[in-house]
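The aim of this short unit is practical: by the end, you should be able to scan a pair of folded records and say something sensible about each. We start with the first protein, listed as its amino acid sequence and then its structure tokens.
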Amino acid sequence: MIKKAKGRLRLLVSMLALVVLLSSCGGGSSKPENVNGEKVTLQFWTIALQPTFTPYFNRVIADYEQKNPDVKIDWKDYPYDAVTNKLLTSIASGSSPDVVNLNTEFASQMGSKGAVVDMNEYLSPEEKAAYFEGIYNSTVINGKAYALPWYTGTEVLYMNTKLVKAAGLDPAHPPKTREELSEWGRQVNRKLGKAGYAQQLVSKLFAIDGIPILNKEKTAAAFNTPEAVTMINNLKKQMEDGVILKEDADFAQQVKYYAGEQVAFELAGPTFINFIKTAAPDVYKNTIAVPVPTGKADVRLSNSMDLVVPTKSAHVNEAVKFAVFLTNAESQTAFSKAANTLPSTKDSIKDPYFTQSDQSLEAQAKVVSAQSLDKATDYMVGVPNAKDVNSAVTRAFQNILLNGTDTKQTLTALEEEVNDILKQ
């Protein structure tokens, strides 16, 4: 699996290099193309939103087309695993879409290669100020904003109250720090033989403890420190003690372990509820949501989806205008209500939907996470070649925590690898 992942990564890097080469030969037109009264057609791509949210998009697109009669939106939806390859292929072949839904990691990767436009060149100060600053800045590199933040999520702590009570713990007084969460996990393991929680071995583990990935200039790795060694060795001890499952568990695996009551806790955004409610209704009924325990850094990590406009778009001005419309407060509030996500716009959370709770699990998670949006930031904020850097960090964590390599030696090798990535 690792060899396949490396192969896919090399292919993406090669294709992205081709995209950059073609982009350097000239971008698309930024002028309206409305010859003889013909409509401008914008190609709009999203990730895995059909058919569940087709009614919402049909409404919002119809609304936009009514307000902008010279524009037609051609909406296409692709699976997550397919969209990046399809995007790079289309740009390289000269048939670029105009507005594309990407995650923050890949949006930053595209931006650092000059493959998407700088939104700061098109947005007014008022339009930029509409978004939460930390979330908007997640794709800002060297002063250039390569995406508009769209729907997002911040982590909350889900706990299975049945298991917590059986372990002799009081869910009415949940852990407030990562250290306290570790102690709760140890007690769950001692009393019940289950783990505290599962997690994915990604770069956010640095951010939780306030360990910077890169230096302030974003030119070199900055994580090879005694603090990082201590943090990673602490994670290793927690895995040995059963606090954390000894595994690199992606989101689907985390859902599986929580649904099967193999773990007592889950740290995730509000969308986790949609999966657990379907997979394990009884576990859902026993679950509550509370504020996420903080690490040494008092930050709230966001997991955002963004909208980008490729530089090869033939209709950049119109594309940016449509992206702004999709991410304005009105549109984001409506989508959040339909999709159980969080908005990235400040005015959206003034809606009572984000402040009032009926004590359902959905409402608990929504209110708790919405309250943290003003502190939210992406853990890869401002990192050039973010996708490659995160992949390198993940492999290093796997080698240390799962394969037993030396922490300091592996961090030193990772430092060299990240520095090489930054030179690409």
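Turning to the second protein, read its sequence before its tokens, just as you did above.
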Amino acid sequence: MAAPSSNASKLSQVQALVDMLRTDLQDHHLPPEKRVITLEKLKVFGRDVNQSDPIFTMEAKMLCKHAFEGTDSKSAQEAMRCLANALLKVPGTRQIFVELGYTGQAVNRYQNDSLDEEFLAGRILFLVTYATAETPKWLEEYKLANYLNDAITRHGIIYSKINKNEQPSALQDMAFTETTKLLFNLTHFAPEKVDLFSRSIPTLFKILCRRTLPSLPLQSSVAHLVNALLNLDLSSQAGCVFPSFDPTCNVARLIEVLDLSVESPNDNRNNQRNQLFNEAGAPLVTLLRKVFEISSDQAKKYMRIRLLPSDEERKNPRGKDDSLASRLLQLSTSAAALNIRQHLASMLFEVSNSNPEEFVRNVGYGYASGLLLSAGVELPQSALESLSASSDSSGRLFNPITGQALDSEPETKDPFSEMTDEEKEREAERLFILFERLKQTGVVDIQNPVEKALHEGRFEELD
């Protein structure tokens, strides 16, 4: 909608609209259509904070009355849009909203089977959680936990009707996103109440498994769904997290999201994907770690197969191919993944049963050493000695530093094998001169190895 006329100053136009809407609360002189248009004009002005002061002060009480005390649903929703915009643009209005005492009415909007009102109420309450410590009161006294669970159930029904080639409508996806964002904040600010949302765990996993994943899942509602699961007590619904018909289906879906979210840091074409993962990937990795902790043996085995390098990959040093495990290893030491690499290393360590020796055997000491050092975990000398003779499941010995099978390592050529005796003699003279010059600098006290070899009789006189 185009902005209202700029003939008068913006501030005076905003004030005139606010006065008109305040008067309408008393005498209801505006027809519903005119009231909606007036609120739309005010919403457009509110997109820019400059000269829109009346929207962001106690005048917001007028908007609250239109939003939660009016009888016209279209006007109420437009007023809620104005409020949501104000709460986003000027954080100070969140405290004003709490002081005006309209939180309970906003919660009640979740009872309606309306995607528009779920979207708007969800966004308003999500923003207000940052301005109050009363979230536990919302959950039980205002019954918000029940309303949120019911809303998630309704979304589960929507997804259960979707065919493979269909997706939820844009409004359905937007409403679900606001609900999951609110759920995350509620469980974050009121962790003692997370059990109130346990019945939503199966539905959230069902939605995760049945919706089509976009190419960048962490840029979609999938990321908010993962966040919503993060603080919940998954062990309370372990039978649904690891269903008997397929104990690995939910784990497989989370790993699929992970697979779509990471690329090799050496592939410059996919910097955007890894940048996004670096910024938003920690909840996904943390959720996988929580799931592994409560997993059945079958699910743990599946996670190890998918997340850790296989014996087949020992043909090359660890982290040198394009498998998911290799990409995770590369990111766990990448300077371009500062926010996420510690989370990745910790996940790989835990999937290795939190056993330092097993961790080194799985990923190679080169990758494992950083995490072990930062965590203060010391690998015993006996373990290092046993690793030097370690073998994979097929019995092949492997290099404990790189993780590569010894029979796959390139043969090391003797650098002197193709030199003539005269060339070897000239090389020895060159090295002798270089070491003598180094000694003369006084920087280091070093014995010339050529001189040492001569004294020890390791030089052979040539004809």
